[in-house]
Structures are given as C-alpha cells and as structure tokens.
Predict the structure.
Amino acid sequence: MTEIQEKKKKKSAAKRGGCILLCAVLIIGSLWFLQQLFMPKYMHDIVEGAMIAEYYQEEKDHDVIFVGDCELYENISPQVLWDEYGINSYIRGSAQQLIWQSYYLMEETLRYEKPKAIVFNVLSLKYNEPQKEAYNRMTLDGMRWSMSKVHSIEASMLPEENFIEYVFPILRYHSRYSSLTEDDLTYLVKKDAVTHNGYYMRVDVRPAENVPEGKPLGDYTFGENAMSYLVKMNELCKENGVELILVKAPSLYPYWYDEWEEQVEVFAKENDLKYYNFLKATDEIGLDFTEDTYDAGLHLNLSGAEKLSRYFGRILSEECGIESRRGEAALEAQWDEKRQAYEADRDAQYAEIGKNRNEE
Amino acid sequence: MDELLEILRDLHPDVDFEHCDDLVDGGILDSFDIVTLITEINDTFDVAISANEIVPENFNSAEALYELIVSKMDAED
Amino acid sequence: MLFTSYEFLLFLLIVFTLYYLIPKKWQWKFLLLASYVFYFTAGRTYLLYIGATTVTTYLAARKIQDRKDAFKASFDAVKQGLTREEKKQKKEAEKKHQFRLMLVCLLFNLGILAVIKYTNFTISNINGILHAFGSEKTLSFVNLVIPMGISFYTFQSLGYLIDVYQGKIKAERSLGKFALFVSFFPQLVQGPISRYSDLAESLYTEHKADYRTITLGLERILWGFFKKLVIADRMLVAVNAIIKDTETYNGAFAFVGMLFYALELYADFTGGIDITIGTAQTLGITVTENFNRPYFSKSIKEYWKRWHITMGTWFTDYIFYPLSICKSMQKLSKFSRKHFGEQIGKRIPVYLASFIVWFTTGIWHGANWNFIAWGIGNFVVIMISQELEPLYYRFHSRFRVLGKTWFKMFQVVRTVLIMSCLRMFDCYRDVPLTFKMFGSMFTKFSVKSLTGAAFSGLGLTVWDYAILLVGALLLFTVSMLGRSGSVRGKIAGFAFPVRFLIWYGLFLTVLVFGAYGIGYSASQFIYNQF
C-alpha cells in the first residue's frame, strides 16, 4: 500500500472509530436522560421513595443508626436526640421496609461507618415473604449499587419482577410517559430533602378513635425466613462491635400481638439484647393519642415523635452509654443548619394547616 | 393441442392461452383451475397426472402442459 | 420462552456471539445444540416428542431413498428385457412399498399430534353425545402437555418425507442435520413451515459475519418487537375486554372488537415472524416469507396466498392436490357426472377436496369447534366467490371498473371485512356465541354506545389509542413503501446519521411505548399502613 493509501485507511479508521464513539455517547446519554426522566421523583405526595437515597449525602459519623419501617421514620426525631442528648443519629427508613431489606441496609451502612448502636423496629418480623412491588421499589431503587443491594433485590423480588429491571429502571418505569409532571424535569438530577436525618415530619393531628382489637391469627410464630434475618442482624452487629437494640414503636395499629411480643422477648433474652416495647410505656413517654398522632394512631406526629425521642434519648444516653457530642464544632454547625430546615418545615406545615382551617 | 386449448378456454374464455407463458406465476390459473384442468385432461387424454407434477414449470404455458401430457402418453421409463 | 422476553434476548445474544466465534464448520452443529437448549427451556418432556418425530421421519426417509436408489440400479439392469406392462407393474409394486413406509411414518407422527392435541376435544364431544342420549356417564379429561410448535414441526417434517417419497428431494443422510431442520429454534414458536429444499440451502453452509446481512436481520427483529410490544400487546387489552364480557360489549363493540382483533393478530403474527426471519438472517440463514401484505388482498383467494403463506402452500401441495386428483376422487367425479350432470360432476373434486382441506386447516389451528367453524366458513366464502365468477365476469364486461383505484379499494376493504368477520370464531368462547355476536352487529348496532363509559372500560387510555393510531399508520406506510421494494434496503441507502436516527428512534419507541412490564399507576402506591 502506498503512503497515501495508508494515510487514507488510517483516517477512515479514525473516522469510523470517532463515529462509533459519538454514537455510543449519544445512545448512553439519551438512555440515561430517559431513565432519569421516567424514574419517579417522590418529591410530592408520596415522598417515601426518596428517603433511602438521602443517606449518602450525609457525613457518615453517626452514633446511632435507626433501621426500619415507618414506625421508626415517623416516630423518632434525630433533631431532639441531638438538641437534648448530643446524640448524632440517622434513620435509614422506608415504606414497609421488610426485615431482609433492613438487614442489607445495615450491612451496607456498616461499610460506611461504625456507629455505637443500631436500633431496629421489630414489626417487620410479621412479613415472612415479599409483599408489594411498589414498596420494594421505594426501598431498593434508592440504594447505591453494592452486593448488599444485589442480595436485597434477590430476597425481595416478586414473581413478576426481573432483576434486569432494577439494573435498568427505565424498563420498569417507561410506562410513566403518560404521567410525567413538572417534577420529573425539575428534579431530573438533584432532589430536595424530604426528611430530617431520615425523620419524616408531620404536624397535623388526627386523634385515635376506635382502634380495632387484633383479629386472632391461626399461627403466631414468626416465619423462619424473617427470624433468620434477625439472627443475621445480631451476628452482623456483634462482628462489627455495634450494639443491636430492638424496639417496638408505640403505634396502635398494626396490632402487636402478645404472642409476637413473647417471641421477641425470648430472642432478646437469649441473645443478650436490649429490647424496648414503647407500647408498654406510653404513659411514661407522655403520649396522648388524641393529639400526638396524625393518622388516628398508626404513626405519631411531630409532638408525639419529640416526646418519644426525649424518652428514648434518655435511655440511649443513660442505659446504652451513648455519650453526648455537644461541643464538637463540626457537628454543632451541621445541626444548626439542620435545625433551621427542621423549624422551617414545621412552620410551613403549621401555616398550611392554618390556611386550610381559615378556608373552611 | 387444440383439445387442450379448448379445455383451457372453457376455464378462462378471456385469456390468450396460445401466447401466455406465466399462467401460474402470473396468477391466471389458481389451484381450483389446476384441479379442474387436470381432471379434464386425465379424462380427455387418458393419462394420470400426479400431484408431484403440479409445478409451475409444467403449467405456466399451454405448450409446457401439452409436453407434459405427451410425455405421459408415451410413458417409458 | 417468549420472543418478547429478556430471556430470549439474552439467549439470542449468546447464540449470535458464539456462532460467529466458533469454527465455521461447527456452526450448524452449534445451532442444533442451541435449538435443543431453547426447546429444553420451554419444557423438558418436549424433547421426547420432537426426538421421536425427528428419528422416525429420518429413518423412514432414508429407507425410502435407499429403496429408490436400489430399485433404480436393479431396474436399469433388467429393463431392456421387459414389456411395457411388466415395467409398469414392477414400478407400481415398488411405489406401493415406498408408500407403505411413508404411510406408517405419517400415521405415527400424525397420531402423536392427534392424541396430544385432540384427545380432550374428542372426549368433550363424546360426553356431549352421551348427555344428549340421557346418559349420566362422563369421561374425564386427560392432562396432556402440548409440546411447543408441535403442529409446525410435525408438518414441516412430514412435508420433507412426502417430498422424498415423490422424488423431489434426496433424503438427508446426516441425522444431526435433519434434526436441525426439524428443530431450528426461530421456527419452533410459530413457524413458518419451511420446505427442506428451501431451508437446507442456507441452514448447513458456513457463514461469515457479514455486516449487511446482520444489520438487516437486527433491523427486522427490532421491527418485529415494535409490532408485538407497541401495537399487538397494547391492542390485546381492548380485544380481551370485548370478547370476555359479551353482555356489555356487543353490537357496535363487536364490530370494533373485530377490527381491533384484525390489527392485533396481524401485528402479533407478522411481528413474531419478523423476529423469526430476522433472527435467522443474523445467522446468515434464509427462512421463507410467511406474509406478503395480506391486508392489501382484493379477494379471499388472494388473501390466502398472502397470509400464513407456508401453511397455505403446505395444505395445497400435500393435501389439496393429491386429494383432488387421486384415483378415487376421479372415479367419484365420473360417477357424479353420470348421475348428477356435468356441472356438479366437475365441481366435486374441487369442492370436496377444498372442504376437507379447510376442515383440516381449521382443526389444525386448534382443538375446538370454533376453529372448525372458522375453517368451514372460509370454505363457504371461497366457494361462493368461485360460483359468482361468471356473474363477476359479466359485470366487469359491462362496467369497466376493474383496475380503477376506488374499485380496488372497495375490493380490499371488502376482503378485510370478510376475513375479520370470519375471525370472530377465533375470539368467542363457542360457535353459538360467535353467531350471536355477529348478529348483534346488525341488530344492536349503536354508535352512541361507543361514546359511553363502556369504552374507557376497555382498559386503554387516550394515550394508548393515540399510539395505536400512529403505530397502525406507520405499519400502513411501511407496507405501502414495501410494494416497490425492500424498505430496509431503501433505508440502507440513506446516509449514516439518518439510518442511525431511524433505528435508534424505533428502538426508543419500543423501549418507552412498548406495552410490557408491570406498568405504572398511582394506585399501586396507595397504602394503608407502612
């Protein structure tokens, strides 16, 4: 081949290479854009889906990590824990978080930091099998990719789900083309915070009225699958030198059976774990279900959450030995900022309620 | 040959069978026509055209068809 | 596995990659392995059935071929000394022998098909008869699993056997190669029914990775996915709603449903075939076409040359012709001519054979009276149009409308409507219900009923209808363009950016608008307790 021919060949090869590269960039770029567009943003209405992802922005230097479902993320205020006990905490909570999802979240969190204690709400022991696909998504989509996420997906998938739809969520959410909103563009890349260190604040009030007695069950034994994860949690925390603390939130519903209570107490005793059932301490906590709940007893509102946090904070600092870190400059600065957002959210919600009341 | 042409014209009076050479490929003769044709031919010429001889090559023109008939009448090996 | 599934795409990717990496002389063997793996994932026990058909047909064909070769040699040696009569006798004796071999194999394989597919149908009919005679006895149904594609591969194998018997082709000497012919995986799901002489041309040869062939194949697969996921699966939602609730959806809805089904079936069937032929093309293998713009047909006869082509030609070549010109039929024809007159006599072979073919076609589609009614319906329409031909001829001599655009459009619309009406047998649970629904189109037709709440009850949104409309228009446009040559060929002539836009655009359309996955609705997130 002559020199000119060789040059031409190199040029066209380079051109071809550049072309392929350009196409690849275009394809990957447009697919990424579409995926971001179609994934639900969870910024309004249903905000629970945005919770898990918020953790990664934080400074990973917490004393206590709460892991569990709405009975934690709606009932505990990390702001109060800091203000009154100097405890730096975070709630890794999500909607109907299943026990294996909690386990894998713990596993993942312990790779980022080593808190002194992990608090787990035991309600999810009642679910032995995967439940709802939508809730799976809200818990799992927000996790960063890791082996923990892979295992959590595998443990959670319902028969109609496919692993590849988690890897490429566009395959799951493509049908949202007909329900896209402004939010989908606004929050394409960056999202707003919907929680305060994992706490989902609600200030409204709806008193608890006729809370139904639990219907008798055929079998009260917790499923093997669910219990196995509790065992794993215990081992995981021991291996990492973290204290596992079990709690039962003071929610009037779903009904917490005595038979379930017994099993948890037995497990805690056998494994030398602390277990606090707040349902039994509502008086001490000072809870009044006519004003401390926003949904008739399922979850506490701001007033109730702060009361519970005050109560539990004392336990954490006195019985569990979590020392106050007030005075640490960095943390003080952080929490000052957080307090501003906390109070702003609270004020905005009260204003909204006042407005609604005026309009009535 | 004339007998054959008569049979063909009976089927489709408006077709020029003497010159047309894509009777099958051109869709002029359909499967019903072919069967009716074969029945008539078998009867008239006392031959037995078989199903595996129903190929476009044999039926595309009156000539090809006539050759088939003749070869069957003189059937040797 | 379904064509439109993640598993199949993964399977294709693996097969395609390995196919071009391994030494070329192993390619057909690899395809055989891949086909059996594909079939295995569909159902383990299926392998027994396809194995049985493969082996028996292979052996029967080999035996017939061996006899043919042996006979030719021995006959040539002695033919000089024989009279014409003796030659004829010898040949016929040999033919009889070969025929018997073929018949045994045919009956065995058709027997498998019959037992597996039609036992329960037979039982239900027997029960019906028993009850009609007041008997309390009820035979219980059997639980037989129907191997995927058994109707297709059985017919494909038997076609091969008959071709060998008739001397059209020579029997395949390699069992492996024959096994691949029977089980070639793109064809296992819904055909086409290939002829050995066609498929063998490219199935066993060595294939080099050729950019043009591969891209054409991939484009065709993508087009098939578009038809199936964007159009067919979406349309199916409304079709199902209409045919399941006949109390609400009759009259105008039956008419609308029939048209919806026409679109859905076309998109699904031709889309599946696109994926089949496209897949084969990426492997360098040519599979015969099964559709040729069937909705542009101007008559029923033409329609059946353009819809499910390989099935039509199979029934024509292997049942219609042999049946209509066999000796017994000729005798019957002569008899009828004598006793019922010329007109009836000469129609007997054609119509009787045609009726049998359509009855068989119907029952081949499914073990149900619906399908038989559908088959016979087709026969009746064809017979009527055949008998009306002299009338048409006189009409067209008087009125010069043949060839005029508007008249052609009339013919096309007429054909589409008739075929859509016949397909109603496909949709409804049983034959009486089908007639009822058909009748309701005339007795209960009310355009107003379409505008009520029932329409939204069909399960599709405005978006869905918009997508279906655009999709159908796209199908139509592509078909129109295709009349003057291959559309993919034309696209290949465009500049690269344009080609890229077209194919990537189509891909994104399938990705976003495909009716697959769990779907999104706000109601999924309604919770009462977290």
Summary: Chains B and A do not touch (no CB pair under 8 Å). Residues 2-73 of chain B form a domain with the Non-ribosomal Peptide Synthetase Peptidyl Carrier Protein; Chain A fold (CATH 1.10.1200.10). The mean pLDDT of chain B is 84. The first helix of chain B runs from residue 2 to 11.
